[in-house]
TrEMBL record:
It comes from the Bacteria. InterPro entries: GHMP_kinase_C_sf (IPR036554), Mev_decarb (IPR005935), MVD-like_N (IPR053859), Mvd1_C (IPR041431), Ribosomal_Su5_D2-typ_SF (IPR020568), Ribsml_uS5_D2-typ_fold_subgr (IPR014721). The keyword Lipid metabolism applies. Residues 199-330 form the Mvd1 C-terminal domain. This is Diphosphomevalonate/mevalonate 3,5-bisphosphate decarboxylase family protein. Keywords: ATP-binding, Lipid biosynthesis, Lipid metabolism, Lyase, Nucleotide-binding. Transmembrane segments: none annotated. Residues 13-170 form the Diphosphomevalonate decarboxylase-like N-terminal domain. SUPFAM superfamilies: GHMP Kinase, C-terminal domain, Ribosomal protein S5 domain 2-like. The keyword Lyase applies.
């Protein structure tokens, strides 16, 4: 008997790139490898309710965020459905009710595309499993979920698992792929095991540049070639750093990656400055504090003004004090989010 309806729920985390993905080819193929920490607290929870409909020729779905119907989300999801149509035979046979919520404030300037698209991809995979009554091997399920998530938003392919995920073909990680993320396979020092990420919400406004526009600016970018090569080189440099636990070398590398991402945007045509004055205030405070205290605190940035403050758990007390006393004043409404490295998505 064919299944007529059902319901699945997944929660999936956000991730923060240490080596940045910026620039892509057709079909969401990255121009360079990237590596990220999967986060733990910043998550999207998505429930998809599916019911068989009279055969139609188009996708049929509704989207709700925190219970409110969101028609402005529909084009992005329709694009995603179109891209993954060939991998799921049932997409046009059902009506889908997609209900989603985030654990972090929306319009916080934190991209929900990685957590949102990975949660949706996982729901589609679970539905496929129910409909075909097949048992996929866990490993294959996760690989396909990452592959599908990538077609929603590139960085989403790094959110299925944790705690360190590599995406993009490279010579360092055996089995790495442009098509999906893989777990970082090498030894990682204790120092990085429960790394902390305190996200300072400097600017909660709409993104000035969508990532699609941003990636496209790397086409014909004067520094594109050397940037893509640098990402490979940095991945190679990161390996002994992660192995030895050298926190200072780690900070040097990730801060350089963050500033390079922004430098790419400043040197594209058209050009953009995505940092705000308070972003720079925070960066300078971090540098001064690091010098004076000797504590291993560093930062990374996404394609926006918010600052991710990264540090090992063992120094969390002193560094959180510093953040509260000296950095929070530069955040919009003093808002910040405490997160840490996490282990990936979960079915609920
Ligand atoms: O996944 P996208 O297409 O939104 O790209 C995100 C790119 C950065 O967040 C800026 C860097 C990264 O590797 O996550």
């Amino acid at each position: 008997k064919t299944i007529q309806h059902g319901k699945v729920t997944w929660e999936s985390p956000s991730n923060i790139a240490l080596i940045k993905y910026w620039g892509k080819k057709a079909n969401q193929i990255p121009e360079n490898p990237s590596i990220s920490f999967t986060l733990n607290n910043c998550k999207t929870i998505t429930t998809v309710t599916y019911s068989l409909k009279d055969s139609g020729t188009d996708f049929d779905f509704d989207v709700f965020l925190d219970g409110d119907k969101k028609d402005d989300f529909k084009p992005k999801i329709a694009t995603f459905f179109k891209r993954v149509e060939g991998y799921f035979s049932f997409l046009k046979d059902f009506h889908f009710k997609i209900e989603t919520s985030n654990t972090f404030p929306h319009s916080s300037g934190i991209a929900s595309s990685a957590s949102g698209m990975s949660a949706l991809a996982l729901c589609l995979l679970s539905i496929e499993q129910s409909l075909t009554k097949s048992e996929m091997l866990d490993e294959y399920f996760k690989k396909k979920a990452s592959f599908i998530a990538r077609l929603g938003s590139g960085s989403a392919c790094r959110s299925i698992e944790g705690d360190l995920i590599v995406w993009g073909n490279n010579d360092i990680v055996n089995g790495s792929s442009d098509l999906y993320g893989v777990k970082y396979p090498f030894e990682v020092h204790e120092n990085f095991k429960d790394y902390q990420d305190t996200i300072l919400l400097v600017d909660k406004g709409e993104k000035q540049v969508s990532s699609t526009v941003g990636h496209n600016l790397m086409h014909n970018h004067p520094y594109a070639h050397s940037r893509f090569q640098q990402a490979h080189d940095n991945l190679q440099k990161l390996k002994p750093i992660l192995e030895s636990g050298d926190l200072i070398a780690f900070i040097d590398l990730i801060e350089s990656e963050a500033l390079t991402l922004h430098a790419m945007m400043m040197t594209s045509m058209p050009y953009f400055i995505l940092m705000k004055p308070n972003t720079l205030e925070i960066i300078n405070k971090i540098w001064t504090f690091r010098k004076v205290s000797g504590l291993p605190v560093g930062f990374t940035l996404d394609a926006g003004a918010n600052v991710h403050v990264l540090y090992p758990k063992k120094d969390a007390n002193a560094i959180l004090e510093f953040i509260k006393h000296e950095l929070v004043a530069y955040c919009e409404n003093r808002q910040y989010i405490c997160d840490q490295i996490g282990f990936g998505a979960q079915q609920i």
